[in-house]
């Protein structure tokens, strides 16, 4: 028979912004993890029960939220500076904590009594933000990207962006794109080809504004893809997963890998931005899954 906390969690998930039904106990398990504070997990383990806390899923959900925000802001036409500023505002801890509180999400958080009693207002806010991110991570793991993207947009009160119609018949000869691997150029629309040309243009060219916007979107693709790679292939803790992702995304790592892949010149930073802009072009025209496939070409197998 289902216990009261699990029943309350199911009822919470059925309401906005999640609007999901979790039919089996196994499918509910990631959501239980997403609302479990480390203190409660530790308390349960001391009693001999296997319990995981929300920290790994919070790591994943943070990247999902950033990607969803960047996708929407790109489609709204924001410039690079505005995209970065607005993204930080939307995924800021206090904002996420307020959102979770507005949905009465605090009632489903599982935390040890002594820890809660000693937690100040800032600690409670931080915990709620972590849970909001972890819940998005759980949706991604259980239901996939499209559902998680929709939940993220609903949570942040954003209008989901729609992919443009792919004008495949109008696609031209790739031209300057001939040196790119097929993961970038296979079956892409004419619009995507044009954005890729912009991605590979000289940073000082007139199109640098659009190139920058594409790079912001592509950066979020790379971050989410790296997060998924290390989350799914290892059982590393949040701290070590973060170090892995930072290394993958650093110009010193990404630059040489991207240069050998897309055969372009420039400093590591310039090549990294070009690669990210290419990923942004793929997401803008063909969606995250296609962009993520290309991003995997520069992501090394996580070391356990």
Question: Which structural class should the secondary elements be placed in?
Answer: mainly alpha
Indicate the low-confidence ranges by residue numbers. none
Mean pLDDT: 92
How many whole angstroms does the radius of gyration measure? Answer: 21 Å
Q: Please, how many helices?
A: 16
Which percent range describes the beta-strand content? under 5%
Net shape: elongated
Instruction: Give the helices and strands as they follow along the chain.
Output: HHHHHHHHHHHHHHHH
For the record, give the distance between the C-alpha atoms at the N and C termini, rounded to a whole number: 38 Å
Please report the total strand number as a whole number.
Answer: 0
Helix content: 55-70%
Largest sheet: none
Give the topology, please:
Layout: H1 4-14, H2 25-34, H3 38-46, H4 55-75, H5 80-90, H6 93-102, H7 113-117, H8 121-143, H9 145-155, H10 182-185, H11 190-199, H12 208-233, H13 238-249, H14 251-262, H15 268-286, H16 288-295
Protein model, in words:
This protein is mainly alpha-helical and 304 residues long. 66% of the residues lie in helices and 0% in strands. The protein contains 16 helices and no strands. It has helices spanning 4-14, 25-34, 38-46, 55-75, 80-90, 93-102, 113-117, 121-143, 145-155, 182-185, 190-199, 208-233, 238-249, 251-262, 268-286, 288-295. α4 (55-75) crosses α8 (121-143). The protein is elongated.
């Amino acid at each position: 028979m289902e216990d009261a906390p699990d029943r309350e969690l199911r009822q919470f998930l059925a309401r906005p912004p999640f609007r999901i039904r979790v039919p089996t106990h196994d499918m509910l398990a990631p959501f239980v993890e997403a609302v479990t504070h480390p203190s409660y997990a530790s308390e349960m383990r001391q009693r001999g029960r296997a319990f995981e806390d929300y920290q790994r899923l919070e790591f994943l959900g943070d990247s999902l939220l950033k990607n969803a925000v960047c996708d929407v802001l790109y489609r709204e036409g924001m410039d690079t500076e505005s995209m970065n500023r607005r993204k930080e505002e939307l995924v800021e801890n206090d904002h996420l904590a307020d959102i979770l509180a507005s949905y009465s999400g605090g009632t489903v958080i599982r935390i040890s009594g002594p820890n809660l009693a000693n937690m100040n207002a800032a600690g409670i806010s931080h915990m709620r933000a972590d849970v909001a991110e972890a819940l998005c991570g759980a949706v991604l793991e259980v239901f996939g990207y499209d559902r998680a993207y929709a939940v993220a947009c609903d949570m942040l009160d954003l209008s989901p962006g729609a992919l443009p119609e792919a004008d495949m018949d109008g696609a031209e000869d790739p031209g300057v794109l001939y040196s790119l691997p097929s993961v970038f150029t296979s079956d892409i629309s004419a619009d995507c080809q044009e954005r890729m040309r912009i991605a590979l243009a000289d940073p000082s060219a007139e199109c640098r504004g659009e190139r920058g916007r594409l790079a912001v979107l592509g950066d979020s693709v790379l971050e989410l893809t790296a997060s998924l790679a290390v989350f799914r292939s290892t059982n590393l803790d949040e701290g070590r997963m973060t170090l892995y992702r930072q290394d993958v995304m650093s110009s010193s790592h990404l630059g040489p890998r991207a240069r050998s892949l897309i055969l372009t010149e420039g400093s590591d930073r310039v090549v990294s931005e070009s690669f990210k802009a290419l990923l942004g072009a793929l997401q803008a025209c063909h969606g995250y899954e296609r962009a993520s496939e290309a991003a995997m070409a520069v992501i090394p197998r996580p070391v356990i």
